Amino acid sequence: MHHRSAVVVYAAATLQGLSFTLVPALATEFSRAPYAIDARAFGVLFIPLTLGAVVAAAATPLLARKFEMVGVLGLGVIANVLGLLALLASVVMPREGAYVLLLADTTALGVGFGLNFSAVNELASTLSTNATRSVTIANVLTGLGTAVTPLFVGGLVIRGLWPVWPALLAAAFVGVLVLSYGWKAPSVATRGSKLRRPISRALVLFGIAAVLYAFCEGTFSSWATTFVHVDRRFSLVSGEVALSGFWFALTGTRLLMAFTTRVLQPPLAFMTFPIAIGAALLLLPVWNSALLLVIGFIVGGIACSIVFPYGMSLALSAMPDDKNRVAGVLVAALMTGEGLGTFAIGAVRGSGFASLADIYRLSAIVAFALAIVATLARRASTAA
Fold first, then answer.
1. 377: closest CA among 325, 323, 319?
2. Confidence (pTM)
3. Taking the mean position of all CA atoms in its chain, how far away is CA 108?
4. Of 100, 150, 237, 368, which residue is 20 to 30 A from 198 by alpha carbon distance?
Protein backbone atom coordinates (compact mmCIF):
# COMPACT_ATOMS: atom_id res chain seq x y z
CA MET A 1 0.00 0.00 0.00
CA HIS A 2 2.94 2.26 0.75
CA HIS A 3 4.13 2.13 -2.85
CA ARG A 4 0.64 2.85 -4.15
CA SER A 5 0.25 5.86 -1.85
CA ALA A 6 3.61 7.24 -3.02
CA VAL A 7 2.55 6.84 -6.65
CA VAL A 8 -0.73 8.66 -5.93
CA VAL A 9 0.94 11.60 -4.17
CA TYR A 10 3.85 12.07 -6.54
CA ALA A 11 1.73 11.52 -9.67
CA ALA A 12 -0.82 14.05 -8.43
CA ALA A 13 2.01 16.53 -7.73
CA THR A 14 3.44 16.08 -11.24
CA LEU A 15 0.08 16.31 -13.00
CA GLN A 16 -0.81 19.44 -11.06
CA GLY A 17 2.27 21.18 -12.39
CA LEU A 18 1.64 19.92 -15.92
CA SER A 19 -1.93 21.24 -15.94
CA PHE A 20 -1.39 24.52 -14.07
CA THR A 21 0.75 26.11 -16.80
CA LEU A 22 -1.34 24.76 -19.67
CA VAL A 23 -3.24 28.02 -20.28
CA PRO A 24 -0.10 30.23 -20.43
CA ALA A 25 1.50 27.69 -22.77
CA LEU A 26 -1.46 28.04 -25.16
CA ALA A 27 -1.35 31.86 -25.30
CA THR A 28 -0.56 32.02 -29.00
CA GLU A 29 -3.25 29.46 -29.83
CA PHE A 30 -5.87 31.51 -27.99
CA SER A 31 -5.08 34.52 -30.17
CA ARG A 32 -6.38 32.58 -33.18
CA ALA A 33 -9.84 31.26 -34.10
CA PRO A 34 -12.10 30.08 -32.59
CA TYR A 35 -10.88 32.08 -29.57
CA ALA A 36 -9.36 35.23 -31.10
CA ILE A 37 -8.99 36.89 -27.68
CA ASP A 38 -6.83 39.95 -27.07
CA ALA A 39 -4.20 40.46 -24.36
CA ARG A 40 -6.66 41.98 -21.88
CA ALA A 41 -9.15 39.13 -22.22
CA PHE A 42 -6.28 36.66 -21.88
CA GLY A 43 -5.14 38.33 -18.66
CA VAL A 44 -8.65 38.10 -17.23
CA LEU A 45 -8.40 34.30 -17.45
CA PHE A 46 -5.88 34.30 -14.61
CA ILE A 47 -8.18 36.07 -12.14
CA PRO A 48 -10.46 33.05 -11.54
CA LEU A 49 -7.38 30.82 -11.62
CA THR A 50 -5.82 32.69 -8.70
CA LEU A 51 -9.05 33.28 -6.78
CA GLY A 52 -10.13 29.66 -7.25
CA ALA A 53 -6.83 28.40 -5.85
CA VAL A 54 -6.94 30.74 -2.84
CA VAL A 55 -10.57 29.97 -1.96
CA ALA A 56 -10.12 26.21 -2.41
CA ALA A 57 -6.96 26.14 -0.29
CA ALA A 58 -8.69 28.16 2.44
CA ALA A 59 -11.61 25.70 2.40
CA THR A 60 -9.31 22.68 2.67
CA PRO A 61 -9.47 22.32 6.49
CA LEU A 62 -13.27 22.22 6.45
CA LEU A 63 -13.33 19.71 3.60
CA ALA A 64 -10.64 17.58 5.26
CA ARG A 65 -12.77 17.23 8.40
CA LYS A 66 -15.53 15.70 6.27
CA PHE A 67 -13.61 13.77 3.61
CA GLU A 68 -10.09 13.47 5.14
CA MET A 69 -7.11 14.64 3.12
CA VAL A 70 -7.23 11.77 0.63
CA GLY A 71 -10.79 12.87 -0.16
CA VAL A 72 -9.61 16.46 -0.62
CA LEU A 73 -7.02 15.21 -3.09
CA GLY A 74 -9.80 13.38 -4.93
CA LEU A 75 -11.91 16.55 -5.10
CA GLY A 76 -8.90 18.43 -6.45
CA VAL A 77 -8.34 15.77 -9.09
CA ILE A 78 -12.00 15.93 -10.15
CA ALA A 79 -11.80 19.75 -10.42
CA ASN A 80 -8.74 19.44 -12.65
CA VAL A 81 -10.48 16.88 -14.87
CA LEU A 82 -13.53 19.15 -15.24
CA GLY A 83 -11.27 22.07 -16.17
CA LEU A 84 -9.41 20.03 -18.79
CA LEU A 85 -12.71 18.79 -20.26
CA ALA A 86 -13.94 22.40 -20.48
CA LEU A 87 -10.75 23.30 -22.36
CA LEU A 88 -11.28 20.42 -24.79
CA ALA A 89 -14.92 21.38 -25.34
CA SER A 90 -13.93 24.97 -26.13
CA VAL A 91 -12.26 23.82 -29.36
CA VAL A 92 -15.61 23.18 -31.05
CA MET A 93 -17.47 26.21 -29.68
CA PRO A 94 -17.96 29.62 -31.35
CA ARG A 95 -15.91 32.54 -30.03
CA GLU A 96 -18.17 33.68 -27.16
CA GLY A 97 -18.89 30.16 -25.97
CA ALA A 98 -15.24 29.21 -26.25
CA TYR A 99 -14.20 32.08 -23.99
CA VAL A 100 -16.82 31.14 -21.38
CA LEU A 101 -15.42 27.62 -21.36
CA LEU A 102 -11.90 28.99 -20.96
CA LEU A 103 -13.08 30.90 -17.88
CA ALA A 104 -14.63 27.68 -16.58
CA ASP A 105 -11.34 25.91 -17.33
CA THR A 106 -9.16 28.36 -15.40
CA THR A 107 -11.62 28.46 -12.50
CA ALA A 108 -11.66 24.67 -12.21
CA LEU A 109 -7.87 24.41 -12.59
CA GLY A 110 -7.44 27.02 -9.84
CA VAL A 111 -9.78 25.13 -7.51
CA GLY A 112 -8.00 21.91 -8.42
CA PHE A 113 -4.62 23.43 -7.59
CA GLY A 114 -5.81 24.79 -4.23
CA LEU A 115 -7.26 21.44 -3.13
CA ASN A 116 -4.79 19.07 -4.75
CA PHE A 117 -1.58 20.91 -3.85
CA SER A 118 -2.71 21.34 -0.22
CA ALA A 119 -3.43 17.61 -0.02
CA VAL A 120 -0.23 16.63 -1.82
CA ASN A 121 1.95 18.55 0.64
CA GLU A 122 0.30 17.08 3.73
CA LEU A 123 0.06 13.54 2.38
CA ALA A 124 3.69 13.67 1.22
CA SER A 125 4.72 14.35 4.82
CA THR A 126 3.26 10.94 5.81
CA LEU A 127 5.11 8.90 3.19
CA SER A 128 8.37 8.49 5.11
CA THR A 129 10.07 9.35 8.37
CA ASN A 130 11.90 12.17 6.56
CA ALA A 131 8.92 14.48 5.99
CA THR A 132 11.12 17.30 4.68
CA ARG A 133 12.53 15.10 1.93
CA SER A 134 9.10 13.79 0.89
CA VAL A 135 7.49 17.26 0.79
CA THR A 136 10.44 18.68 -1.14
CA ILE A 137 10.29 15.87 -3.72
CA ALA A 138 6.57 16.56 -4.23
CA ASN A 139 7.35 20.24 -4.84
CA VAL A 140 10.17 19.28 -7.22
CA LEU A 141 7.76 17.20 -9.30
CA THR A 142 5.20 20.00 -9.42
CA GLY A 143 7.92 22.42 -10.49
CA LEU A 144 9.10 20.05 -13.22
CA GLY A 145 5.55 19.82 -14.48
CA THR A 146 5.22 23.58 -14.76
CA ALA A 147 8.56 23.78 -16.60
CA VAL A 148 8.03 21.06 -19.21
CA THR A 149 4.40 21.74 -20.19
CA PRO A 150 5.35 24.63 -22.56
CA LEU A 151 7.85 22.31 -24.27
CA PHE A 152 5.31 19.56 -24.91
CA VAL A 153 2.49 21.92 -25.82
CA GLY A 154 4.68 23.96 -28.18
CA GLY A 155 5.52 20.90 -30.25
CA LEU A 156 1.87 19.83 -30.39
CA VAL A 157 0.66 23.33 -31.35
CA ILE A 158 2.97 23.33 -34.38
CA ARG A 159 1.38 20.06 -35.51
CA GLY A 160 -2.17 21.18 -34.71
CA LEU A 161 -2.50 18.45 -32.09
CA TRP A 162 -2.49 20.41 -28.83
CA PRO A 163 -5.88 18.99 -27.61
CA VAL A 164 -4.09 15.66 -27.22
CA TRP A 165 -2.19 17.05 -24.22
CA PRO A 166 -5.18 18.05 -22.01
CA ALA A 167 -6.88 14.77 -23.00
CA LEU A 168 -3.86 12.79 -21.78
CA LEU A 169 -3.69 14.83 -18.58
CA ALA A 170 -7.39 14.24 -17.88
CA ALA A 171 -6.94 10.49 -18.39
CA ALA A 172 -3.91 10.46 -16.09
CA PHE A 173 -5.81 12.36 -13.38
CA VAL A 174 -8.59 9.77 -13.59
CA GLY A 175 -5.95 7.09 -13.11
CA VAL A 176 -4.73 8.82 -9.94
CA LEU A 177 -8.32 9.01 -8.68
CA VAL A 178 -8.77 5.27 -9.22
CA LEU A 179 -5.47 4.47 -7.48
CA SER A 180 -6.40 6.62 -4.48
CA TYR A 181 -9.63 4.69 -3.87
CA GLY A 182 -9.54 2.90 -0.53
CA TRP A 183 -6.36 4.60 0.73
CA LYS A 184 -6.54 5.74 4.33
CA ALA A 185 -3.66 8.08 5.02
CA PRO A 186 -1.99 7.76 8.47
CA SER A 187 -3.00 11.23 9.63
CA VAL A 188 -5.06 10.15 12.63
CA ALA A 189 -3.89 13.14 14.66
CA THR A 190 -5.78 15.54 12.43
CA ARG A 191 -9.08 13.70 12.58
CA GLY A 192 -11.51 15.22 14.96
CA SER A 193 -9.26 18.19 15.60
CA LYS A 194 -11.09 21.36 16.42
CA LEU A 195 -11.42 23.53 13.38
CA ARG A 196 -12.31 26.54 15.54
CA ARG A 197 -9.20 26.38 17.69
CA PRO A 198 -7.34 29.70 17.62
CA ILE A 199 -4.88 30.08 14.77
CA SER A 200 -1.44 29.87 16.31
CA ARG A 201 1.11 32.65 16.06
CA ALA A 202 3.45 30.20 14.31
CA LEU A 203 0.91 29.49 11.55
CA VAL A 204 0.29 33.20 11.02
CA LEU A 205 4.02 33.79 10.64
CA PHE A 206 4.51 30.83 8.30
CA GLY A 207 1.59 32.14 6.24
CA ILE A 208 3.12 35.63 6.01
CA ALA A 209 6.44 34.04 5.03
CA ALA A 210 4.69 32.11 2.24
CA VAL A 211 3.11 35.33 0.90
CA LEU A 212 6.44 37.17 0.94
CA TYR A 213 8.25 34.25 -0.66
CA ALA A 214 5.70 33.89 -3.44
CA PHE A 215 5.87 37.61 -4.15
CA CYS A 216 9.63 37.31 -4.62
CA GLU A 217 9.29 34.22 -6.80
CA GLY A 218 6.71 36.04 -8.94
CA THR A 219 9.05 38.97 -9.49
CA PHE A 220 11.55 36.56 -11.01
CA SER A 221 9.34 34.10 -12.89
CA SER A 222 6.73 36.51 -14.27
CA TRP A 223 9.08 39.27 -15.36
CA ALA A 224 12.37 37.64 -16.37
CA THR A 225 11.77 37.76 -20.12
CA THR A 226 10.32 41.28 -19.96
CA PHE A 227 13.24 42.61 -17.93
CA VAL A 228 15.95 41.11 -20.15
CA HIS A 229 14.31 41.57 -23.54
CA VAL A 230 12.14 44.69 -23.18
CA ASP A 231 13.77 46.77 -20.43
CA ARG A 232 17.39 45.85 -21.12
CA ARG A 233 16.92 45.37 -24.89
CA PHE A 234 18.77 42.08 -25.19
CA SER A 235 17.51 39.37 -27.56
CA LEU A 236 14.30 37.47 -26.90
CA VAL A 237 16.38 34.30 -26.75
CA SER A 238 18.35 35.82 -23.85
CA GLY A 239 15.11 36.58 -22.04
CA GLU A 240 13.80 33.05 -22.52
CA VAL A 241 17.13 31.58 -21.40
CA ALA A 242 16.99 33.73 -18.24
CA LEU A 243 13.49 32.47 -17.45
CA SER A 244 14.41 28.85 -18.15
CA GLY A 245 17.56 29.27 -16.09
CA PHE A 246 15.52 30.48 -13.14
CA TRP A 247 13.11 27.51 -13.24
CA PHE A 248 15.71 24.83 -13.86
CA ALA A 249 17.96 26.24 -11.11
CA LEU A 250 15.01 26.31 -8.71
CA THR A 251 13.93 22.76 -9.54
CA GLY A 252 17.44 21.31 -9.62
CA THR A 253 18.36 22.84 -6.28
CA ARG A 254 15.13 21.54 -4.73
CA LEU A 255 15.97 18.06 -5.94
CA LEU A 256 19.48 18.30 -4.51
CA MET A 257 18.21 19.66 -1.21
CA ALA A 258 15.69 16.83 -0.90
CA PHE A 259 18.61 14.44 -0.36
CA THR A 260 20.91 16.69 1.65
CA THR A 261 18.68 17.69 4.58
CA ARG A 262 21.34 16.48 7.01
CA VAL A 263 24.06 18.58 5.38
CA LEU A 264 22.19 21.89 5.39
CA GLN A 265 19.58 21.80 8.13
CA PRO A 266 16.09 22.85 6.89
CA PRO A 267 15.52 25.42 9.69
CA LEU A 268 18.81 27.17 8.88
CA ALA A 269 18.16 27.11 5.13
CA PHE A 270 14.62 28.42 5.62
CA MET A 271 15.94 31.42 7.52
CA THR A 272 19.03 32.21 5.39
CA PHE A 273 18.05 31.57 1.76
CA PRO A 274 15.80 34.67 1.71
CA ILE A 275 18.94 36.76 2.18
CA ALA A 276 20.28 35.27 -1.07
CA ILE A 277 16.96 36.16 -2.75
CA GLY A 278 17.44 39.77 -1.66
CA ALA A 279 21.01 39.79 -2.93
CA ALA A 280 19.93 38.50 -6.36
CA LEU A 281 17.21 41.15 -6.60
CA LEU A 282 19.74 43.89 -5.82
CA LEU A 283 22.29 42.58 -8.33
CA LEU A 284 19.94 42.26 -11.32
CA PRO A 285 19.49 46.04 -11.83
CA VAL A 286 23.27 46.52 -11.59
CA TRP A 287 24.38 43.90 -14.08
CA ASN A 288 24.36 45.09 -17.69
CA SER A 289 25.21 42.13 -19.90
CA ALA A 290 22.94 39.32 -21.09
CA LEU A 291 25.22 36.67 -19.58
CA LEU A 292 25.26 38.34 -16.16
CA LEU A 293 21.49 38.74 -16.20
CA VAL A 294 21.04 35.05 -16.99
CA ILE A 295 23.42 34.24 -14.11
CA GLY A 296 21.41 36.57 -11.89
CA PHE A 297 18.16 34.72 -12.59
CA ILE A 298 19.90 31.39 -12.02
CA VAL A 299 21.07 32.68 -8.64
CA GLY A 300 17.50 33.79 -7.96
CA GLY A 301 16.23 30.28 -8.76
CA ILE A 302 18.75 28.71 -6.39
CA ALA A 303 17.83 31.18 -3.65
CA CYS A 304 14.09 30.63 -4.07
CA SER A 305 14.36 26.85 -4.35
CA ILE A 306 13.71 25.46 -0.89
CA VAL A 307 12.05 28.30 1.01
CA PHE A 308 8.47 27.14 0.43
CA PRO A 309 8.91 23.32 0.64
CA TYR A 310 11.10 23.64 3.75
CA GLY A 311 8.65 26.13 5.26
CA MET A 312 5.76 23.74 4.57
CA SER A 313 7.53 20.75 6.11
CA LEU A 314 8.66 22.73 9.16
CA ALA A 315 5.12 24.07 9.72
CA LEU A 316 3.57 20.60 9.34
CA SER A 317 6.08 19.15 11.80
CA ALA A 318 5.56 21.96 14.30
CA MET A 319 1.75 21.71 14.24
CA PRO A 320 0.97 17.99 13.78
CA ASP A 321 -2.52 18.31 15.26
CA ASP A 322 -3.47 21.04 12.78
CA LYS A 323 -1.98 19.69 9.55
CA ASN A 324 -5.09 20.21 7.45
CA ARG A 325 -5.24 23.90 8.24
CA VAL A 326 -1.49 24.33 7.89
CA ALA A 327 -1.49 22.92 4.37
CA GLY A 328 -4.52 24.95 3.30
CA VAL A 329 -3.31 28.23 4.76
CA LEU A 330 0.17 27.97 3.26
CA VAL A 331 -1.06 27.09 -0.23
CA ALA A 332 -3.59 29.94 -0.09
CA ALA A 333 -0.79 32.25 1.04
CA LEU A 334 1.43 31.00 -1.79
CA MET A 335 -1.18 31.80 -4.44
CA THR A 336 -1.90 35.20 -2.87
CA GLY A 337 1.76 36.12 -3.05
CA GLU A 338 2.07 34.82 -6.62
CA GLY A 339 -0.85 37.04 -7.62
CA LEU A 340 0.74 40.07 -5.98
CA GLY A 341 4.07 39.35 -7.62
CA THR A 342 2.42 39.25 -11.03
CA PHE A 343 -0.58 41.59 -11.05
CA ALA A 344 0.58 44.30 -8.63
CA ILE A 345 3.96 44.63 -10.29
CA GLY A 346 2.26 44.75 -13.68
CA ALA A 347 0.00 47.57 -12.49
CA VAL A 348 2.90 49.57 -11.06
CA ARG A 349 5.03 49.07 -14.16
CA GLY A 350 2.15 49.83 -16.49
CA SER A 351 1.33 53.06 -14.69
CA GLY A 352 4.87 54.34 -15.21
CA PHE A 353 5.52 54.88 -11.50
CA ALA A 354 8.55 52.62 -11.48
CA SER A 355 10.73 50.61 -13.87
CA LEU A 356 11.33 46.91 -13.37
CA ALA A 357 14.84 47.74 -12.14
CA ASP A 358 13.32 49.93 -9.42
CA ILE A 359 10.76 47.25 -8.61
CA TYR A 360 13.52 44.67 -8.22
CA ARG A 361 15.36 46.94 -5.79
CA LEU A 362 12.19 47.45 -3.75
CA SER A 363 11.43 43.73 -3.88
CA ALA A 364 14.76 43.08 -2.16
CA ILE A 365 13.22 44.70 0.92
CA VAL A 366 10.46 42.09 0.74
CA ALA A 367 13.10 39.34 0.62
CA PHE A 368 14.92 40.69 3.68
CA ALA A 369 11.57 41.00 5.46
CA LEU A 370 11.02 37.34 4.56
CA ALA A 371 14.27 36.41 6.31
CA ILE A 372 13.05 38.15 9.48
CA VAL A 373 9.58 36.58 9.33
CA ALA A 374 11.06 33.13 8.64
CA THR A 375 13.24 33.47 11.74
CA LEU A 376 10.26 34.55 13.84
CA ALA A 377 8.15 31.69 12.45
CA ARG A 378 10.82 29.16 13.31
CA ARG A 379 11.15 30.50 16.85
CA ALA A 380 7.36 30.53 17.32
CA SER A 381 7.07 26.95 16.07
CA THR A 382 9.87 25.82 18.39
CA ALA A 383 8.14 27.46 21.32
CA ALA A 384 4.84 25.80 20.35
1. 319
2. 0.81
3. 16
4. 368
Burial 70-108 (b: 16+ CB within 10 A, else e): bbbbbbbbbbbbbbbbbbbebeebeeeebbebbbbbbbb
Q: Which residue has the higher pLDDT, 4 or 359?
A: 359
pLDDT digits (tens, 9 = 90+) for 310-323: 999 999 988 888 88
Q: Note whether 210 and 301 are same-domain residues.
A: yes
Are 164 and 156 within 8 A, CB to CB?
Answer: yes
d(CA 354, CA 376): 31
CA–CA distance, 375 with 216 (Å, rounded to integer): 17
DSSP readout, 88-120? HHHTTS-HHHHHHHHHHHHHHHHHHHHHHHHHH
Same domain for 141 and 283? no
Task: Give the domain range for residue 104.
Answer: 1-182
Task: State which of 182, 201, 228 marks the end of a domain.
Answer: 182
19 within 8 A of 172, measured Cβ to Cβ: no
Same domain, 174 and 215: no
User: Of 143, 166, 182, which residue constitutes the final position of a domain?
Assistant: 182
- Mapping DSSP to helix (H, G, I), strand (E, B) and coil, where does residue 28 land? helix
Total number of domains in the chain: 2
Task: Verify that 229 and 175 share a domain, yes or no.
Answer: no
